[in-house]
Amino acid sequence: MDSEAFERIGRLLGLARRSGAATLGLRATTAGAEQRKLAIVVLAGDASARTARVVRRMCGATPLIQGGTMERLGELMGMPPVAVAGVRHGALAAQILRLTRGSPGEP
Length: 107
Prior knowledge:
single chain; alpha+beta; CATH 3.30.1330.30; 4 strands
């Protein structure tokens, strides 16, 4: 994913956080995924292998995108560095998915 797309995604994640429609961090995001309350999950590209493995396992059919860094992901959401975030709001998740599909190198 290119940096411009990640910046746009980060702004949407920030909006989701401010509106109460986001989960931040491994514990909250995996809990949301287990309860099938997430529309999309975003994993930082520099997350640890263990974190990535746990997130991938817990996501199941929930769309998962990976990119950027933990520092930038947290910064864009107005938080300290964060490895993973989830979005509960379907319309915001759809916008994020559109951005990833428009990025070079993404399926």
